[in-house]
């Protein structure tokens, strides 16, 4: 047994610890660590070192070296720092190195020392310089908090989605606070700072004083503060040598410990044991280390998920190893191998010494059509590296044409984007591209582009019909589409124009367009309408009543109904209303007026071009059998049966049918023999039929 | 009557799942997501409500966006602040958001989608309720709904298994097919192993057969639609039908036992059937006489309710019949039908033309006149120039000059065109197709057909035998073919095409017909291994009508199914009829 416990040493009364070396650091440091800015990424990630010459020397003659090591000390990158003085190094959760400069600009590097981007923390920071800074991690991502020379705080909660927040002023803050930290409560980022014996909490809108519950008296300064990784716990080190440990909300004290050391510690940090949830704090001075807590026995440890592990391997460009792990764990392709290959491809496009063709071919060979690989993502990366041609080549491998569109738009290949959008069948995408083109191109080019793409054109045209009438007109003009231009002005003549002069003018324009379109019919019809409109206007002036916008037929009917027979006839002649129509129209109007005398006069005015059955019909519609009978006698022989049936005279109908020996008419009459008195008539028809058959 | 299905006919899939799915989604959206407690119709009217929020459930139409913008802006002017939510169904379109933005209210409104596209109107009828599909696609050339239809087909194949065979004809059908296949490919691997429940799918563009949709309907359900307009599977019967002072909203589907027996019948049989039914009912009521107390108790508790229900339905449909008879069996209607038949058969064209002219002169009905003009044009491959001009002139005189635009629309869709002098196109086409290969000829035909859409109805009718020979009286009580839905005068072209392709398992032997139909046919028979499709499933056929189908077509295919042992399921962008088609093409002053 003793061989297992030999290297364990007692720690206090109930705990033991042991110390053994997992591995030795591979690095060969040229500078002592104390002269360097150091940042170690969370979860055993990489370590960045930058000799900090700006601390002591005013004008550095030699440029410092930025070095990145793996956590075991393997050199990953080394580059000369050519930019301005750096205040703080820190790692984002995505393992990007954030270098916060004195002027408030932040330079971002990958873990291989590849420059990614830079951003500024704002004008206020630039003017007042950075005094102090912190990198912090929350569920929103990795953030940066800055304390400026004007003793104001500025922060961003997520460097990936930069939104700068300037925190409210701290009243009476004239010097650097003795210590400060970033808190995160209820999804809000806060700053906690200490000035002498007082603690202040800064939120978005206000600065308020806070007091930690149960703090031992006599404190005139807070020397150090530390918040736990999950922002639940806070530790304060006071100038009385006390360590206060409690909830970060400052609502509850958990533990207080007097360590009897009054010197300011160099560093203080939380550690905890995941299973027992026991919390402890580690405090470091120059030559002393102290662990305080209920049962301080384990260092912080957090289990990495397999996805995070794979991401880390990918970041370190250990693609084959990552793929082997995926295969070993039998991860589904989309989550595993495809994702890693996609990352590999994104790395591949950054190799600038390889030609576009070769890169594209190499990527396609390896990826083929592996499910879950998005060629458009890879192409976007290529474009990000300034390789537009390569991006276009890669996009050609993207099977879903819709996916190609956003990047093509970004690369200003809008016309290609339009064809791809149309190919995708997604009309919404087409419409998006169309509007993009509308803003990007001048009107002429825009129309020309649409002209070559009927699908897009009809989509846009339909939109314009509802929303942009003037553009619609321009579109037709561009195409010399006189037919549609004519239609356009016709519609305008009743939808857009109200004054009669305006309407006639719109119609005149329509006429001109129709003639250009060689549509003589439409032109003539429109000219007639202009004539009619003017005439209707005159009728309204002279006779009163409503005429405008009636059809020609209804205009004449209106005149007849109001007894203006002469005007009606004049109008019919002027507009060459065919005789047949005029007869229909007039007899219907007279019947509606129940002007039977006039109707009879009309019927005798000349031979009716529509026969006399219609006269019978209109009378019967008004239930005037007396008048109907008069006309029934004048109906032509072919229609006589119908006429008699209409007035309900079955006997006469039967006589006519028998006389005409028409079988169809006979059965028609027979089907009307339903009344009690019709028996004799039915017999008569049957007899006639029998007779006809015998013959 | 109401022929039973063949004993071996496959069972229909259960579509109530779609209804439940849609209902649950909607309830979730309205109650959970948006806390809606009251619904109003979206109109261009001010809203008098004190609610803190207004939620609009709308079709993605620009007009609707304007209404909403007016409402919001009215509120703004009155200094009133509320939350506004717009739920688009079945999807949101970018153009709609653009309008909201241009009207300056995009920031005030939050948008959501309700991806509901398949409404089961009946056990065998799914409607997308998208009447605008017809005008959008066939007139404006807007393809925005193609994706929606493809999604719907995709959903069906997810729920009821893959299809074994797919047939189709028409440009839109082809695009829907391709978009749908892309959706399937994206998900390949996730839905493996499911057995097909519906074995075949047939996609058909409405413009392949305008003729059928333009005919007056004479089977009961179609006639009810033409007369009273069935909306979303229900109809408003007015006081003349209910013989009371109230209107009644009645659901028309297979649940209505009386309706289910007469819906597919030629109208001439319906009245006889209903009176027989009434007599039977009376007899059942009469059984009460001479019952002892126990029997009576039994009768009241078990049978009476059913009888009363039947009684109610019976009197409704008798009322509807009377109302239809009053409107339709007059001399006028018979002459109208006679004219239609003459047009379909292609005789007495002069007489029919005069009939139409008189119809216009008398201002009988703007929609009806237009329909007859279109029917004349399509059956005759366009109007002769003289008639084209004079009929249009007459129409404009009757109904107003704005219909110049209606005629422009009809011309563009090929519904009302002018004959090409001397039929030169056909001559050139024939010559060209003899000279070059089939494929090139197909392309050339495409080019020609875009010059002038040709209906070629006469030729197609001859090839497919659409007009039954009139050597004996057609007994409408015992139909012998699908022509019964048009009184034995005409077999609906759309249904005939489907019948032929199913029988031949493809387009082989129909080459000439396909050419006359302007091509774009396809048949895919290797979508899944043949042996993995249960034989039952292959007799279950989903017919997709792009641009709408009529109840007459549904009745005809139900008949075909009974004859051949198929069951048809209908998926349509909307149920349509001649009046709806004409109204979609008409320009009206607003």
Question: Topology, please?
Answer:
The complex is a heterodimer of chains A (695) and B (590).
Chain A: H1 2-5, E1 8-11, E2 15-18, E3 36-40, E4 47-51, E5 65-69, E6 75-80, E7 86-91, E8 97-101, E9 105-109, E10 115-120, H2 123-128, E11 130-138, E12 141-148, E13 153-156, E14 165-166, E15 179-185, E16 188-195, E17 198-202, E18 207-210, E19 222-227, E20 233-238, E21 242-247, E22 253-258, E23 267-272, E24 279-284, E25 289-293, H3 306-315, H4 319-329, H5 337-348, H6 356-367, H7 375-384, H8 388-395, H9 401-410, H10 414-424, H11 427-440, H12 443-451, H13 454-467, H14 469-478, H15 482-495, H16 500-516, H17 520-543, H18 552-561, H19 565-574, H20 579-593, H21 596-605, H22 613-621, H23 625-632, H24 637-646, H25 650-660, H26 663-672, H27 679-694
Chain B: H1 16-33, E1 53-58, H2 62-77, E2 83-88, H3 94-102, E3 109-113, E4 119-122, E5 125-127, H4 132-139, H5 146-160, E6 165-169, H6 171-186, E7 200-205, H7 210-214, H8 220-228, E8 234-237, H9 239-242, E9 248-251, H10 257-262, H11 267-286, H12 293-328, H13 331-345, H14 349-361, H15 366-379, H16 385-399, H17 403-413, H18 424-435, H19 438-451, H20 457-464, H21 493-504, H22 511-516, E10 521-524, E11 540-546, H23 551-564, E12 567-572, H24 578-585
Parallel strand pairs in B: 1-2, 2-3, 5-12, 6-7, 7-11, 11-12
Antiparallel strand pairs in B: 4-5, 6-10, 8-9
Domain Vps16 N-terminal (chain A): 4-302
GO molecular function (chain A): actin binding
Main location (chain A): membrane
Name some characteristics of this structure.
heterodimer; A: 695 residues; alpha+beta; 4-stranded antiparallel sheet; elongated; B: 590 residues; Rossmann fold; Syntaxin Binding Protein 1, Chain A, domain 2; 4 domains; 24 helices; 12 strands; globular; VPS33_dom3b (chain B); Sec-1-like_dom3a (chain B); VPS33B late endosome and lysosome associated (chain B); protein transport (chain B); transport (chain B)
């Amino acid at each position: 047994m003793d061989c297992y416990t030999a290297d364990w040493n007692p720690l206090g009364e109930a705990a033991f610890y042991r110390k053994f070396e997992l591995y030795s650091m591979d690095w060969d440091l040229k500078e002592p660590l104390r002269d360097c800015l150091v940042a170690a990424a969370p979860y055993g990630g990489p370590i960045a070192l930058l000799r900090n010459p700006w601390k002591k020397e005013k004008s550095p003659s030699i440029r410092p070296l930025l070095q990145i090591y793996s956590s075991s000390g393997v050199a990953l990158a080394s580059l000369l720092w050519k930019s301005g003085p750096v205040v703080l190094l820190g790692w984002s959760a995505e393992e990007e190195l954030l270098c916060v400069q004195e002027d408030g600009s932040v330079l971002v590097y990958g873990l291989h020392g590849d420059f990614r981007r830079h951003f500024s923390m704002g004008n206020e920071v630039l003017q007042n310089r950075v005094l102090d800074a912190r990198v912090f991690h929350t569920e929103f991502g990795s953030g940066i908090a800055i304390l400026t020379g004007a003793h104001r705080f500025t922060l961003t909660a997520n460097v990936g989605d930069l939104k700068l927040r300037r925190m409210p002023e701290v009243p009476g803050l004239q010097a650097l606070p003795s210590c400060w930290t970033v808190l995160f409560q209820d999804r809000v980022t806060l700053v906690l700072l200490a000035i002498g014996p007082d603690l202040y909490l800064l939120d978005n809108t206000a600065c308020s004083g806070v007091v930690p519950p149960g703090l031992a008296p006599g404190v005139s300064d807070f020397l150090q503060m530390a918040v736990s990784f999950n922002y639940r716990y806070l530790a304060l080190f006071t100038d009385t040598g006390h360590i206060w440990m409690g909830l970060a909300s400052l609502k509850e004290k958990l533990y207080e410990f007097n360590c009897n050391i009054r010197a300011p510690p160099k560093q203080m940090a939380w550690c905890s044991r995941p299973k027992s949830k026991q919390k402890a704090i580690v405090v470091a001075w120059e030559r002393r280390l102290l662990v305080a807590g209920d049962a301080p026995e384990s260092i912080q440890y957090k289990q990495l998920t397999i996805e995070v592990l794979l991401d880390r391997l990918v970041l370190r460009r250990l693609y084959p190893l990552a793929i082997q792990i995926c295969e070993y764990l039998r991860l589904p392709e989309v989550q595993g191998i495809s994702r890693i290959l996609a990352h590999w491809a994104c790395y591949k496009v950054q190799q600038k010494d390889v030609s576009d063709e070769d890169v594209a071919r190499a990527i396609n060979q390896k990826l083929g059509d592996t499910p879950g690989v998005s060629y458009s993502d890879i192409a976007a990366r290529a474009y990000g590296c300034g390789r537009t041609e390569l991006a276009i080549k890669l996009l050609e491998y993207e099977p879903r044409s819709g996916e190609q569109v956003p990047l093509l738009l970004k690369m200003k290949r809008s016309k290609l984007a339009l064809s791809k959008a149309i190919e995708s069948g997604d009309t919404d995408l087409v419409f998006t591209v169309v509007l993009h083109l509308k803003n990007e191109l001048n009107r002429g080019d825009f129309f020309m582009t649409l002209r070559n793409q009927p699908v897009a054109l009809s989509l846009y045209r339909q939109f314009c019909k509802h929303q942009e009438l003037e553009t619609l007109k321009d579109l037709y003009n561009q195409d010399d589409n006189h037919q549609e231009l004519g239609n356009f002005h016709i519609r305008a003549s009743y939808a857009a124009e109200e004054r009669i002069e305006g309407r006639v003018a719109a119609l005149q324009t329509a006429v001109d367009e129709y003639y250009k379109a060689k549509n003589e019919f439409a032109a003539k019809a429109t000219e007639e309408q202009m004539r009619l409109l003017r005439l209707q206007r005159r009728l309204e002036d002279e006779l009163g009543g409503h005429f405008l916008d009636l059809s020609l037929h209804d205009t004449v009917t209106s005149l007849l109904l109001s007894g203006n027979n002469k005007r009606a006839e004049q109008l019919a002649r002027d507009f060459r209303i065919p005789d047949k129509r005029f007869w229909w129209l007039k007899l219907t109007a007279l019947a509606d007026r129940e002007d039977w005398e006039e109707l009879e006069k009309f019927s005798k005015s000349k031979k009716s071009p529509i026969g006399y059955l219609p006269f019978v019909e209109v009378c019967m519609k008004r239930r005037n059998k007396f008048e109907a009978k008069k006309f029934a006698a004048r109906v032509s022989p072919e229609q006589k049966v119908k006429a008699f049936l209409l007035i309900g005279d079955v006997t006469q109908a039967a006589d006519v049918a028998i006389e005409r020996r028409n079988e169809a008419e006979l059965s028609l009459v027979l089907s009307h023999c339903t009344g009690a008195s019709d028996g004799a008539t039915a017999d008569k028809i049957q007899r006639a039929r029998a007779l006809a058959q015998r013959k | 009557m109401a022929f039973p299905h063949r004993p071996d006919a496959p069972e229909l899939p259960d579509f109530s799942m779609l209804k439940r799915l849609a209902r649950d989604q909607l309830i979730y959206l309205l109650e959970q997501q948006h806390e809606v407690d009251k619904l109003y119709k979206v109109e261009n009217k001010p809203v008098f409500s004190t609610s803190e929020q207004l939620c609009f459930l709308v079709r993605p139409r620009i007009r609707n966006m304007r209404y909403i913008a007016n409402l919001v802006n009215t509120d703004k002017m009155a200094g009133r602040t509320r939350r506004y939510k717009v739920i688009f169904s079945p999807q949101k379109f970018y153009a709609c958001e653009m309008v909201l933005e241009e009207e300056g209210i995009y920031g005030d409104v939050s948008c959501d989608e309700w991806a509901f596209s398949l409404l089961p109107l009946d056990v065998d009828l799914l409607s997308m309720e998208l009447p605008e599909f017809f005008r959008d696609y066939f007139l404006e050339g807007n393809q925005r709904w193609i994706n929606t239809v493809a999604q719907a087909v995709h959903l069906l194949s997810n729920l009821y298994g893959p299809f074994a065979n797919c047939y189709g004809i028409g440009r839109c059908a082809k695009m829907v097919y391709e978009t749908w296949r892309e959706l399937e490919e994206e998900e390949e691997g996730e839905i493996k192993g499911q057995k097909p429940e519906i074995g075949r799918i047939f996609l058909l563009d409405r413009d392949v057969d305008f003729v059928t949709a333009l005919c007056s309907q004479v089977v009961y359900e179609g006639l009810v639609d033409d007369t009273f307009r069935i909306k979303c599977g229900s109809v408003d019967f007015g006081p003349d039908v209910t013989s009371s002072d109230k209107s009644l909203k009645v659901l028309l589907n297979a649940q209505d036992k009386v309706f289910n027996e007469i819906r597919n019948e030629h109208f001439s049989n319906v009245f006889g059937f209903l009176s027989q039914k009434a007599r039977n009912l009376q007899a059942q009521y009469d059984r009460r006489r001479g019952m002892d107390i126990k029997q009576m108790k039994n009768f009241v508790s078990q049978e009476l309710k059913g009888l009363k229900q039947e009684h109610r339905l019976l009197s409704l449909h008798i009322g509807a019949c009377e109302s239809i008879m009053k409107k339709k069996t007059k001399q006028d209607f018979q002459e109208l039908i006679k004219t239609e038949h003459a047009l379909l058969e292609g005789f007495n064209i002069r007489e029919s033309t005069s009939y139409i002219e008189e119809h216009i002169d008398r201002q009988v009905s703007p929609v009806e006149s237009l329909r007859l003009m279109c029917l004349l044009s399509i059956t005759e491959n366009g109007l002769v120039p003289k008639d084209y001009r004079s009929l249009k002139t007459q129409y404009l005189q009757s109904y107003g000059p704005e219909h110049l635009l209606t005629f422009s629309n009809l011309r563009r869709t090929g519904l009302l065109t002018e004959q090409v002098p001397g039929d030169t196109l056909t001559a050139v086409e024939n010559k060209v197709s003899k000279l070059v290969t089939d494929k090139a000829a197909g392309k050339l035909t495409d080019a020609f057909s875009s010059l002038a859409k040709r209906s070629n109805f006469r030729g197609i009718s001859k090839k497919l035998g659409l007009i039954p020979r009139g050597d004996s009286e057609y007994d409408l009580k015992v139909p012998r073919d699908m022509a019964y839905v048009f009184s034995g005068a005409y077999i609906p072209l759309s249904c005939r095409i489907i019948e032929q392709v199913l029988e031949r398992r493809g387009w082989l032997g129909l080459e000439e017909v396909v050419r006359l139909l302007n091509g774009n046919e396809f048949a895919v028979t290797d979508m899944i291994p043949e042996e993995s499709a249960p034989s039952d499933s292959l007799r279950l056929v989903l017919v997709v009508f792009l641009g709408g189908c009529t109840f007459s077509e549904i009745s005809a295919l139900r008949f075909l199914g009974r004859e051949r042992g198929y069951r048809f399921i209908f998926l349509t962008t909307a149920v349509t009829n001649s009046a709806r088609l004409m109204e979609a093409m008409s320009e009206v002053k607003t």
